[in-house]
Amino acid sequence: MSTAPTSVHAAAAALRESGGEARAGGTDIVVRARDRLTAGPFVELHRVAQIRGTAWADDGSARIGALTTIAEIAGDPALRAGYPALAATASALATPQIRAVATIGGNLLQRNRCAYYRNPAFSCFQTGGASCPAREGDHLYAAVIDQGPCVAPHPSSMAVALLAYDASVRADDGTSTPVGDLYDGADPTRDHRLAPGRLLTGVELPPPAAGESAAYHRATGRSRAEWPLVEAVARVVRTGTVITGVAVAAGAVARTPVRLTEVEQALLGRPAASESLSEALDGSTARCSPLPQTGYKAGLLRATVQEVLEQTLDRS
Ligand SMILES: Cc1cc2nc3c(=O)[nH]c(=O)nc-3n(C[C@H](O)[C@H](O)[C@H](O)COP(=O)(O)OP(=O)(O)OC[C@H]3O[C@@H](n4cnc5c(N)ncnc54)[C@H](O)[C@@H]3O)c2cc1C
Ligand code: SF4
After folding, report:
1. Whose CA is nearest to atom 41 of ligand 1?
2. Which ligand is the nearest neighbour of the Cα of 101?
3. For the residues 13-17, what does the mean pLDDT come to?
4. Which residue of 59, 86, 199, 291 is 20 to 30 Å from 207, comparing CA positions?
5. pLDDT of residue 280
6. Rounded to whole angstroms, how far apart are CA atoms 36 and 87?
7. DSSP strand E in 116-155: where?
8. Is residue 176 very low, low, confident or very high in pLDDT (cuts 50, 70, 90)?
9. What residue's CA is closest to ligand 2, atom 6?
10. Which residues of 259-292 are buried (b: 16+ CB within 10 A; e: fewer)?
11. Rounded Cα–Cα distance for residues 233 and 236 (Å)
12. For the domain bounded by 213-315, which CATH number is listed?
């Protein structure tokens, strides 16, 4: 059973009354319904026009409606100019077919890809159980930064980019939450902290940084149609030869997207030169505590962060 309201108010009310889940592009939730991980009822969002598209405020900041598709973000010239790593991330994920229907709201709230969670034959913290079979079992694609009992890596590439841009998400009750606080690595029972019955209405970004150079890169097991093994975003602002602004975020390495503050601190105020870079890279793996099968991700994390930083420094 599903309903298709036309306003945020009606959609949020339908969500709360039904106790079901929202369906945006449907690329994650339909698969979970097929795998008996959700039974609905579903509140269709496609007619809620007021949360689709991008609006710009007078101070230059952008608000991207939750129903805006990944392809629309990737192809928007103003977003590409203001937030280049966000647009680059959108261009790189999944496939053109998925990007055409997948929404930014659904991307941020998609569920993890752990094979145990996705297999209804298994029980784990995420499905009401009391253990994590991945820890003792197959965890080749799991986290390398251990934040808590669940080790499924965070699945949203867009969250990594938004974290690097200090973005926030807004819910239908008007509350605004920094993207970093939308996720809690210590809680093994759920992939995000948006309360049940709440609707995400959009994403808000601070005004673009003048003179920013930015890059996104992913390490993958196959060239397309796959979540990354490791992904990273870097943003750098230089004043002359000195780095005066820097943000580095990584994904697929922990239960949440992570800001690599160790790398940022090592680069800030330093010359944009290769010596600064190699010292800073040592910090990229400072929080890694690999499981038996995820040690390779520490090396990939360092190499991926090196790639995005070299790209940004070459361009600036
Ligand atoms: C082959 C393949 C490769 C992929 N690779 C990547 C990748 O590299 N990186 C990446 O990030 N993703 C990847 N994806 C995942 C894809 O990007 C997501 O499935 C998609 O972004 C989800 O968006 P959606 O609009 O379809 O969400 P839906 O499936 O409609 O919803 C997902 C979840 O979000 C909730 N939801 C959606 N919108 C709202 C809202 N406004 N308010 C409250 N709840 C809401 C739904 O209830 C549901 O729980 C890949 C998918 C495939 C199939
Ligand atoms: S890693 Fe998380 S999702 Fe996977 S089995 Fe463990 S608790 Fe479940």
Report:
1. 200
2. 1
3. 96
4. 199
5. 95
6. 33
7. none
8. very high
9. 132
10. bbebbbebbeebebeeebbeebbebbbebbebbe
11. 10
12. 3.30.390.50
Q: Which two tokens stand for residue 21?
A: 């889940």
Other beta carbons less than 10 A from residue 8's beta carbon: 19
The mean per-residue pLDDT over the stretch 26-53 comes to 94
Q: What is the pTM of this model?
A: 0.97
**β-bridge mates for residue 202, sequence order:** 65, 170
Give the span between the Cα atoms of 92 and 160, in whole angstroms: 13
Is the pLDDT at 223 greater than 90? The verdict is no
Report d(CA 220, CA 29) in Å as an integer: 24
Section 262-289 average pLDDT: 94
Q: Is the Cβ atom of 153 under 6 angstroms away from ligand 2?
A: no
Secondary structure percentages of the chain, helix, strand, coil, to 5: 35, 20, 45
Residue 236: CB atoms within 10 A of its CB come to 26
Enumerate residues 6+ apart whose C-beta is below 8 A from 34.
none
**Mean pLDDT confidence for 233-248:** 96
* Mutation choice for ligand 1 from 34, 68, 110, CB with most ligand atoms inside 8 A: 110
| Ligand showing the shortest atom-to-Cα distance for residue 127 | 2
Residue in 9, 50, 93 to alter for ligand 1 test, most ligand atoms within 8 A of Cβ: 93
Instruction: Judge whether residue 298 has pLDDT over 90.
Output: yes
27, 70 Cβ separation under 8 angstroms = no
Q: Domain limits of the chain?
A: 213-315
How far is Cα 130 from Cα 24, in angstroms, rounded to an integer? 31
Mutate to test the pocket of ligand 2, among 110, 111, 112 (most ligand atoms within 8 A of CB): 112
What backbone phi and psi angles, to 5 degrees, belong to 189? Answer: -95, -15
Give residue 316's pLDDT.
Answer: 63
Contact in structure between 257 and 163 (CB atoms under 8 Å) = yes
Structure tokens at 253: 């390495």
